[in-house]
Amino acid sequence: MGNLFVHTEFQAKDVQQAMKWYGELFGWDTNYMPEMNYATFSDGRTGGGFYSNDNYHGTISYVRVDNYKDTLAKVKDTGGKVIVEPVAMEGLGTFAILADPEGNCFGIIQFESNEALPPQQKQYANFITHIEFRAKDIAKLLDWYAAVFSWEVNHIPEMHYGMIMTSKDENAVTGGVSELGESGPMAIAYIHVDDVDAIWKKAIENGAKSVSEPSDVPTVGRMAHFSDNNGNVIGLLKYAQPE
After folding, report:
1. DSSP assignments along 154-166, one per residue
2. Tens of pLDDT, residues 153-164
3. Quick check: 49 and 41 in contact, CB under 8 A?
4. Helix (H) or strand (E) holding 19
5. What is the Cα–Cα distance from 146 to 164, expressed in whole angstroms?
6. What is the homologous superfamily of the domain 127-239 according to CATH?
7. What is the model's pTM?
8. Which positions ≥6 away from 155 have C-beta within 8 Å?
9. CATH 3.10.180.10 fits 4-111, yes or no
10. pLDDT by residue (tens digit) across 72-119?
11. What is the rounded CA–CA span in Å between residue 133 and residue 105?
């Protein structure tokens, strides 16, 4: 049941503002919990949330694991780091924030129940589809994730990229590793959208900064990137239709 991306969180100085901004941009349903200063969003697939704290920053995607202690040991024994020690949340499970050897942060969570997560009832046009990490050595980091999570990986040198298949389920969120940029290691969440150009334009008009303008990537699809006012870099993606 484990080793799937199940939840993605975006850092926000103002949680309610971020919740409203993303909800309007992508048409997501959101819910603010004032007692935690935390907000959740539903995208019809994995969903996620908006958080604010001083311990870690940026986008954090959580991987569901069957045994968090075993995963922690693997990460620490192979060059990764623990950013936030395991925290038990009653009624949910135990989570921790980790970093891979390149410095990309991600989360793990062991749910209290081993049952499959119930599917979200409402479907949305825009949903998280891919989580990308950055590395100086793409092949080496791919091998690291394969060893820690037993994921299938595929290095594509001619594209300076590596693919991570977390499951054979076509609806599962995939992963990837790209070349390390000037901004350093980070996790980038890609949102599948029907119209990359329209969503990108709307994000920029609403205060986001352009990272890359919409363009076609051969064999992949149409893509663009922006950064929000909290420093999260978001990818927009519409997959190419099979010929």
Report:
1. EEEGGGTEEEEE-
2. 999 999 999 999
3. yes
4. helix 15-26
5. 8
6. 2,3-Dihydroxybiphenyl 1,2-Dioxygenase, domain 1 (3.10.180.10)
7. 0.93
8. 138, 139, 142, 162
9. yes
10. 999 999 999 999 999 999 989 999 999 999 999 999 999 998 765 555
11. 9
